[in-house]
Write a structure and sequence with these properties.
The chain is α+β, with helices and mostly antiparallel strands and 152 residues long. The protein folds into 2 domains: 64 residues, 2,3-Dihydroxybiphenyl 1,2-Dioxygenase, domain 1; 56 residues, 2,3-Dihydroxybiphenyl 1,2-Dioxygenase, domain 1. Helices cover 16% and strands 39% of the residues. The chain has 3 helices and 9 strands. The strands form 2 sheets. Strands 5, 6, 7, 8 and 9 form a 5-stranded mixed β-sheet that branches. Strands 1-4-3-2 form a 4-stranded mixed β-sheet, with helices on one face. The longest helix is centred in the first third of the chain and has 11 residues. It is globular and about 55 Å long.
Length: 152
Amino acid sequence: MSGAGEVLAVSHIGLCVSDFERSLRFYTEGLGFELAEGWDIGDSLAQLAEVPPPMDCRSQMIVKGATKLELLGWRHPLAEGQALTTRRQIGFTHLSVYVDDLGAVEARLVALGATPIEYTRTHFPMPGGAMDILFLGDPDGVRIELVQHGKA
């Protein structure tokens, strides 16, 4: 595709969180994201945020390689709802990351508030190797998939 009307790149993926500081620690200390630009947003962006004023929110971009997440920490009104509980629910279902030591990453994330979803723990043989996979819920229950490539 070329010319006018072309999608150039993915900008970021937004993630609403219930406890901004806890989630910031989880994604930076736990998954290795780094701080990028951030803003406090208020009533002037209420229409864009699809929230009636008054509103107060922290928008913090975090990056890991080419992946950029936007953490949205709502101070007013507070975040609402809950994370999905199955990957057959409509919408974005999970964030998947490659790891070099699934057990070590799991332990670090659990210490930062993650909950392992034990029934997803899978050893998946493939030609030339295997994958070990585990889904966890982040501190709000958002699904994070850990994938470790290894030998069968």
